[in-house]
Write a structure and sequence with these properties.
The chain is mostly beta strands and about 240 residues long. It has 2 domains: about 1-130, no CATH class; about 165-240, no CATH class. Helix content is about 10%, strand content about 35%. The protein is built from 2 helices and 27 strands. Strands 4-5-6-7 form a 4-stranded antiparallel beta sheet, with no helix packed on it. A 4-stranded antiparallel beta sheet has the order 8-9-10-11, with no helix packed on it. The longest helix is centred in the first third of the chain and has 13 residues, at about 1-15. The radius of gyration is 22 Å and the shape is elongated.
């Protein structure tokens, strides 16, 4: 749930209007959201004379860099650059919001889109480093919400290496599902009761029903026919059960 909330937070922030307000001696970050209206935060210690707004969410002065009103303590202000509202880089490291990305290399760091980034050594999802099995063959799986990836040895959901049983037979399915010849997976979870040989996903939507010869599934859990609409009942063969 915390992973989902983190992604939702980024989406919500993207929909807000924000900017830095610089007066003679004070730097403030101004934002708006539906819950609180206008939010104004003074950046304690910021140098108004040298302050620059890089994006509505990143700024810096001659000594420090900031995300919103939060000082990024590890940042090198002289080389600090914003890549967008949520990713930045300096000569030493990459950053997600105000967080330094662990062991990242600033000289080769790049944002790839949809919460993915990389440097010469590895990949990252949001603020988490991924211990990839094979860097050269690593590939993000295309989807409306691209949260999965593969390489020649492993399968990933966000920053998690999924403990699949048989990589050679892995089949990527829609709606966060995948299967090998032994098991079915949703996200980084193995669906123990699912039958891999007969498992099928209804559609290409980010959230979709799935079924096997015994059950119907929503995400990693079985779902009763009584909870489905007519289209879902038809897909799951509820009348025959």
């Amino acid at each position: 749930m915390r992973k989902i909330l983190s992604s939702i937070l980024v989406v919500l922030l993207a929909g807000c209007t924000a900017h830095y307000k610089v007066s003679e001696d004070i730097v403030e970050h101004v934002s708006w959201n539906a819950g609180h209206g206008k939010v104004v935060k003074t950046i304690s210690g910021a140098n108004a004379k040298s302050f620059q707004q890089l994006t509505p969410w990143y700024g810096k002065d001659e000594l420090h860099a900031y995300w919103m009103y939060i000082e990024i303590e590890e940042a090198d202000a002289r080389s600090f650059k914003a890549l967008n509202n949520y990713y930045a880089v300096d000569s030493n490291h990459g950053y997600f919001t105000e967080h330094l990305l662990e062991n990242s290399d600033g000289k080769t760091f790049e944002y790839l889109g949809s919460n993915w980034s990389r440097d010469k050594n590895t990949y990252f999802y949001n603020r988490k480093r991924i211990d990839v099995c094979d860097y050269e063959s690593f590939k993000i799986i295309e989807a409306s919400v691209p949260s999965r990836a593969t390489d020649r040895s492993c399968y990933y959901y966000q920053w998690n290496t999924v403990q699949i049983k048989d990589r050679s037979s892995l089949e990527i399915l829609p709606s966060n599902y995948a299967k090998d010849k032994y098991s079915v997976y949703w996200g980084n979870l193995r669906i123990e009761e699912a039958d891999a040989a007969t498992f099928d996903v209804k559609g290409e939507h980010p959230v979709s029903l799935a079924k096997d010869k015994n059950s119907c599934f929503s995400g990693p859990k079985t779902i009763e026919c009584s909870r489905l609409n007519d289209e879902g009942k038809e897909f799951c063969g509820c009348s025959a059960k």
